[in-house]
Design brief:
Chain B: Pfam families: Bac_luciferase. Chain B: This is Monooxygenase. Chain B: It comes from Micromonospora gifhornensis. Chain B: Keywords: Monooxygenase, Oxidoreductase. The complex is a heterodimer of chains A (258) and B (396). Chain A has 258 residues and is α/β, with parallel strands linked by helices. Chain A folds into 2 domains: 190 residues, Flavodoxin domain (Rossmann fold); 31 residues, no CATH class. Helices cover 38% and strands 14% of the residues of chain A. Chain A has 9 helices and 7 strands. In chain A, strands 1, 2, 3, 4, 5, 6 and 7 form a 7-stranded mixed beta sheet that branches. In chain A, helix 1 crosses helix 6 and helix 2 packs across helix 4. Chain A is globular and about 70 Å long. Chain B has a single domain, classed as TIM Barrel. The chains are: A alpha/beta (258), B alpha/beta (396). At the A-B interface, helix 2, helix 8 and helix 9 of A face helix 5, helix 6 and helix 7 of B.
């Protein structure tokens, strides 16, 4: 099976492939990627994600900014995610999905609430991502649940998780309990979230940050965050590299935890 | 091109019979396997180093010295020697000794080891693993090349006027491979010194090691040791061979299913498809190994793990028959026919002696009379190379 991102119907453009050379900021189509932790068919988490994604496209279109959407449904990737947790090596469709996510200009993440928490599948998916995969990536957060008593799951669990990933969660998150689906205020919250996400995506904030300071973050050599560019990114001007080439052992003395 | 086997020395329950060999039985079995490797025409036998059960090989130098006495031709190596927790002075001494006993049939593969508790057992800290490895090799390199070494570093006591004995055979140090699965600094060190780079090429997706090998090749050329294609690359692998593919899968499956090294989250078939593990007929193993050459470029050494996971000795010996008779001869021919004429030859002691001395006689160091210490006089050897002056420290 190949990973075929499904698309929100209103967007005609193709999903752009993982790309390390961003096009000029104001003309390149923005890549929105949905990560859906819901596994039912139909999935209300997916429905929430689709609505946020569609509103984001509308907002971008209103600014004359082209955008595409790729969908990563985690259900069909469950086996690969479990394998990657054990082997440490994402493979197959999961690897394709991660490469798609790595190239995102904006992300929409939604999860169902299970046992008072985010879906374990979503957490496992994030667990196998490189730490630097989502640095400075704008991200809208959503959750669905069987009761409104779980309303804090997003702020309590998803925000800290994506803070660790150094992503940029937008100010408004969207929680939907059963009663919300019949309430017009859900629509306005979705619209507000989408407006925030679209504003951040339109501003190219991710590349504005990473173009300045990518080298100052820790990276996994050969990782997925910037595929294909890793060999060129090696910094030979480090204490360890000097030690590797017969240099002074003083370097070793000053190196803390590796 | 050299072909051989490497063992991790695991003592594992046989999942088919349910019995676990004793350490004594497994040590005897691996000795027979090493001798058999030479009998079936393989070029290399290597054994790992571990300091925790269920592995027995805490002293690969002792084991290899014994195998050296039982064999005539096969090259002995390690897979790997821990360059982090071993004192580089002891590595220099012990493996120079084995090199003499083996008449030059010894080289060394260095690695960091990945077991957290091992480090404190030897007074070290895994968080310093990488600088330890790098600094220790810098010292080892000098100990095998300079008669008298003054040295100061961060991880062991300083040396003043130290001579590592015996000097390497013919004053040609054992060839060194640096092993790594993810660390660019190790590839850089291998490239800087013009040493070999070994990718174990197991337990990870095929191609996982390619960026590191390519980095090593690029830096090997950068440091002027030759072109990228002349860099010296070794690859691991695992194989299980039967005349018919379906028999290979059927026979190997219980070992795969229970061996602790596989993660058991995916099937044998998927594992064999995605990783360098070769399971199948001789032709299938040949085809898969030829893909390594296609992917990594011409390389100098191919080793397989053939004796792990509780396989009985008889089965391993049969595997070696198939490997030596049906797989390796074809690979030798096929790989040679695809090989670039510029590719470097596989390193051997004879080749390295020729490289250093041409047709001349190799140096044979003879110590001066015992002066009662090791730090006075001009040199501990009668025939030290005047081009390498021994500079002695001031004794405080």
């Amino acid at each position: 099976m190949t990973f075929e991102p499904s698309r929100v119907p209103a967007t005609a453009a193709d999903t752009a492939p993982a790309n390390t050379d961003p096009m000029p900021a104001d003309t390149a189509p923005r890549r929105i990627v949905v990560v859906n932790g819901g596994t039912s068919v139909p999935s209300s988490s997916r429905r929430l994600a689709d609505r946020i994604a569609q509103k984001t496209l509308d907002r971008l279109a209103a600014r004359d900014i082209k955008a595409t959407v790729a969908i990563i449904d985690l259900g069909p990737l469950a086996g690969e995610i479990a394998s990657a947790i054990v082997t440490g090596h994402p493979q197959g469709d999961l690897l394709t999905a991660i490469q798609t996510l790595a190239a995102a200009d904006g992300v929409v993440v939604t999860t169902p609430v299970y046992k008072a928490g985010m879906s374990g599948l979503l957490k496992s998916f994030v667990d196998v991502l490189d730490n630097d995969l989502l640095i400075a990536t704008p991200i809208a957060l959503g959750a669905t649940a069987g009761t409104s008593r779980h309303a804090l799951v997003i702020d309590d669990q998803l925000r800290p998780l994506f803070a660790f990933m150094r992503a940029l969660p937008v100010p408004t998150s969207v929680f939907a309990a059963p009663e919300d689906w019949g309430d017009a205020s859900l629509g306005s919250r979705i619209d507000r979230t989408a407006a925030e996400l679209a504003a951040l995506v339109a501003s190219s904030v991710r590349s504005a940050i990473t173009d300045q300071s990518w080298d100052s973050y820790q990276h996994t050599w050969g990782g997925n965050a910037r595929p294909g560019s890793s060999p060129l990114e090696i910094d030979f001007n480090t204490d360890l590299m000097r030690l590797a080439t017969g240099g002074s052992s003083r370097a070793g003395r000053e190196i803390g935890t590796a | 091109m050299q072909f051989g086997i490497f063992s991790v020395s695991d003592v594992t329950r046989n999942p088919v019979t349910g019995t676990t060999p004793s350490e004594a039985e497994r040590i005897d079995a691996l000795t027979r396997i090493a001798v058999k490797a030479e009998e079936v025409g393989l070029d290399v036998f290597a054994i790992g180093e571990h300091h925790n059960p269920p592995f027995f090989s805490s002293s690969p130098a002792a084991f290899l010295a014994h195998v050296a006495a039982l064999t005539k031709r096969i090259i002995l190596s390690t897979s790997v020697t821990l360059i982090t927790t071993n004192d580089p002075v002891r590595i220099a001494e012990e493996y120079a000794m084995v090199q003499h006993l083996a008449k030059g049939r010894l080289d060394l593969t260095l690695g960091r080891g990945n077991t957290v508790p091992v480090y404190p057992w030897f007074g070290q800290d895994i968080r310093k693993g990488l600088p330890l490895a790098l600094e220790n090799y810098n010292l080892l390199h000098r100990l095998w090349r300079e008669d008298v070494v003054d040295w100061e570093g961060s991880y062991r006591s300083a040396l003043q006027g130290f001579t590592s004995t015996p000097r390497p055979l013919d004053d040609v140090p054992p060839f060194v491979w640096h092993g790594s699965i993810r660390t660019p600094e190790i590839a850089e060190q291998a490239a800087y010194y013009g040493n070999g780079f070994f990718a174990n090429n197991i337990l990870a997706p095929t191609g996982h090691f390619l960026p590191l090998v390519n980095l090593y090749r690029r830096r090997f050329a950068h440091y002027g040791h030759g072109t990228e294609e002349q860099a010296i690359v070794g690859l691991g692998g695992q194989a299980f061979i039967a005349r018919r593919s379906q028999d290979a899968f059927r026979t190997f499956r219980p070992y795969f299913d229970e061996a602790p090294v596989y993660d058991h989250s995916i099937s044998l078939e998927t594992y064999a498809e995605r990783t360098p593990l070769s399971v199948g007929s001789p032709q299938q193993v040949i085809d898969k190994t030829l893909e390594f050459q296609e992917m990594f470029g011409d390389y100098q050494r191919q080793l397989w793990v053939m004796d792990h996971a509780g396989m009985p000795l008889k089965m391993v010996l049969e595997q070696l028959d198939l490997l030596g008779e049906e797989v390796v001869p074809v690979l030798r021919k096929e790989m040679a026919s695809r090989r670039s004429p510029q590719a470097a030859p596989a390193p051997t002691h004879e080749q390295r002696v020729r490289q250093k001395y041409g047709d001349g006689q190799p140096r044979q160091p003879r110590p001066n009379a015992n002066r009662g210490d090791n730090v006075t006089g001009t040199s501990p050897y009668q025939d030290s190379d005047p081009a390498t002056p021994a500079v002695y420290p001031v004794i405080r």
